Amino acid sequence: MLQPGSCKSSTVVCPLCRKVSILPGGHGALVINTTLAEVVKLLPQSGGDPPGPPCAEHPDYTLQLFCKNCEQACCGRCVSLRHQGSFHNVNLLDVVFQEEKLLFYSSLKTLREMHKRLAKEISDEDKNTEWNTQ
């Protein structure tokens, strides 16, 4: 809710607590909401939701976000209702998928290296046992 007047400062109403505050520097001083900006980028130019699985709670919305703290896929409406604040780490579902895939392949590589090393140790131990029994 903007009050007409000076460009140097604005009066705004907090959408969460409804407190009226003066914003020195005007709207240009506001920090960009990057999560919202990413959600807006996902919307096609035609104006509808991009294709994807629908949200179980909000069928008109698609699941495109993921809350890492809750370990739950969610739509934009779910984020605005239940996944806000410093206790929720929300990111795009595609980004989280890529991060988890990288983590999986990194862990798999580590496990394969451990398996190879342990198999070599077992083989060496078997050779030492055979040599000592002769």
UniProtKB/TrEMBL annotation:
One GO MF term attached to the UniProt entry: zinc ion binding
Record's keyword annotation contains Zinc-finger: yes
Record's keyword terms, sorted: Metal-binding, Zinc, Zinc-finger
Pfam families attached to this UniProt entry: zf-B_box (PF00643)
Record domain B box-type: where: 55-93
InterPro entries membership: TRIM/RBCC, Znf_B-box
Full protein name: B box-type domain-containing protein
Organism: Engystomops pustulosus (Tungara frog)
